[in-house]
Design goal:
With about 280 residues, this protein is α/β, with parallel strands linked by helices. It is built from 13 helices and five strands. The protein folds into three domains: about 120 residues, 3-Layer(aba) Sandwich (Rossmann fold); about 60 residues, Histone, subunit A (Orthogonal Bundle); about 70 residues, no CATH class. It has a five-stranded parallel β-sheet, sandwiched between helices. The longest helix is centred in the N-terminal third of the chain and has 17 residues.
């Protein structure tokens, strides 16, 4: 009778939760007790100079528990879920090879999903095709692009609003590059994560507690110079896109806190209305 050999996968821990739920503090505490090394799972923490509005771990926290994938890029550079998956897998392999356990902590669920399930085989962006789409949109309007998408990918066209040029352009671009619709390609499963993953999510039982924490964090952000940090991004020559994305990201992180949202929406509107933007 033959024995069936099962491959033992290395272990990994996922620690997820909303803004101000206490993820970082818990991860640091676990680092003091367990043989774990931390990997940040946050689409904003990867960027240098975006510290206050992202509540990036400070020097003391980093000295207690160094986080990988923090401050790895200039804000002018793009970074995708595919980039994250590649970088995170490399970091996980290094941690496992050192005899320790990867502890991935953060709130960017798209990144966690990309790691767990892999990514569909969507083609990389093609600047020439993207330019052709944008030229046609300038001549005929984005409604024409939406109608063209509907003829080749009606499912995506139903999901994407005609006034969403970025997603419209990408969906049509995928078809023009590959000859297959985005809907068809996204149904193809990616490569699963080769780890035995233990997933944990934390959040206060009472959402009011979470909202109070977020409000307190926002007030601290302002005290620490968040407005100056945003202005420094805006003053860069390539900053308009960075500025808008950063403010929108911060608005999302502030949950239901009206004073926080209203302050950052003012920055967003003022920045959008500046001449030349």
């Amino acid at each position: 009778m033959s024995e069936v050999k099962t491959q033992i996968k290395p272990k990994a821990i996922f620690l997820m939760g909303p803004t101000a739920s206490g993820k970082t503090a818990l991860a640091i505490a676990l680092r003091q007790k367990l043989p774990v090394d931390l990997i940040s799972v946050d689409s904003a923490l990867i960027y240098r100079g975006m510290d206050i509005g992202t509540a990036k771990p400070d020097e003391t926290e980093q000295s207690l528990a160094p986080h990988r994938l923090i401050d790895i890029l200039d804000p002018a550079l793009p970074y995708s879920a595919a980039d994250f998956r590649k970088d995170a897998l490399k970091a996980m392999e290094e941690i496992t090879a050192a005899g320790r356990i990867p502890l991935l902590v953060g709130g960017t669920m798209l990144y966690f999903k990309a790691l767990l399930e892999g990514l569909s085989p969507l083609p990389s962006a093609n600047p020439e095709i993207r330019a052709e789409i944008e030229k046609k949109a300038a001549e005929q309007g984005w409604e024409a692009i939406h109608q063209e998408l509907a003829s080749v990918d009606p499912v995506a066209a139903k999901r994407i609003h005609p006034n969403d040029p970025q997603r419209l352009s990408r969906a049509l671009e995928v078809y023009l590059i590959s000859g297959k619709s985005m809907t068809e390609l996204t149904q193809i499963s990616g490569e699963a994560l080769p780890y035995d993953v233990y997933q944990f999510a934390i959040a206060p039982k009472d959402r009011n507690v979470l909202h109070q924490r977020i409000e307190a964090r926002f007030k601290q952000m302002l005290t620490c110079g968040f407005e100056d940090e945003v202005k420094s991004l805006y003053q860069r020559a390539i900053c308009m896109k960075i500025y808008l994305l950063y403010v929108v990201s911060a608005i999302a992180r502030c949950g239901h806190i009206y004073p926080a949202k209203s302050t950052m929406m003012r920055w967003f509107i003022e920045g959008s209305a500046l001449p030349g933007n």
